[in-house]
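Ticket #4471: structure output looks truncated?

Reporter: J.K.
Steps to reproduce: submitted the chain below (286 residues) through the standard prediction queue, then opened the result file.
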Amino acid sequence: MAVYRRGYQRYEGPRTGRFTRLMVLPKYAWHNLLKKRLMLSLLIMSMFWPIICIGFIYFSNNLDMLLDISPGLTSFLEIDSRFFMIFIKVQGAFSILIAVFAGPGLVAPDLSNNALQLYFSRSFTRTEYVLSRMMVLFGALSIVTWVPGLLLFFIQAALADSSWLIENWNLGSGVFFGLLLWIILLSLVAMAGSAYVRKRVMAEALILAVIFILPAITKILNQAFKISWASLFNPLHVMASICDWLLGTVPDHGPSVFNCWLALFFMIALLIMILRRKLRPVEVVS
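Returned output as attached by the reporter:
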């Protein structure tokens, strides 16, 4: 049959599964990230603090003689919510650096090079695109946040008495769910920032502004007008209050935990709206 007689024929061959298609973008994105020395350096440096925490847990459970000599060390060496909150704050700082480095390179190049048409012309929805890009940050941030956090919890449970796990189970769940919420929020900030400005350098500056400059502005507003509700616009304060509540402690100052939960849901909804607005295969200019 001549070529000009061949009309369009729909593809009838085998199709890959939805999960397989979803993992295509994270597979190559992780490969590209791990080839960069700065990314590897950040991941290696982020492991120092968990190793120090493991040593602290070991000594806190094997220094009975020293505690008999100096009973005042009991409160200092106790593995409680304060210990895990310090761990969350330190690893949270490393997660911010990783998100700033890895986040803008996920969405901004696709938008600046008009690559979304190629993705969405296939059996690949906008939701699947966002999830596949978030998987990249979720995997990288999990390595430095809740994975070592749960490891510390189980090491402490193994070294301590059997009653410790029953009395402090909320510490493990608090570390997991608190850092999981932090990963979701930080990933959405990184993706929404890169989608909004479309330039890698500007996206990195925007993410840093949201994480560091916005909290400074809220503190100035609180002190200038003698209020506390401005902290609801501070993602660091909101997440710190929620993590304190999940670990079983009540924040000493600032808005209530209920208001912090509302602020967190509002931030996530706003970031999703920005992604939905910016991630379009065709941009119409009026």
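Triage note (M.O.): checked the attachment and the full token line is present. The chain has a mean pLDDT of 85.
Status: closed, working as intended.
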